[in-house]
Known about the structure:
Mean pLDDT: 91
Helix content: over 70%
Shape: elongated
Number of strands: 0
Largest sheet: none
Order of helices and strands: HH
Distance between the termini: 11 Å
Amino acid sequence: MRILPYLSAAGVIALGAFVMHLGQLDDSPGLGGIGLLIMLAAAVWCVWRIRRESRS
């Protein structure tokens, strides 16, 4: 199992959390939503990759 893709996904999730935090500081719902979408996309990608590797 390769670990680099999962480390990069963890970095993207951390980036999404940071963007969401910045959106809350500025009281900007759009920026918070973008951060949430970034985190969700990275999490879905991780689950998809794990399921794909388990089939092989």
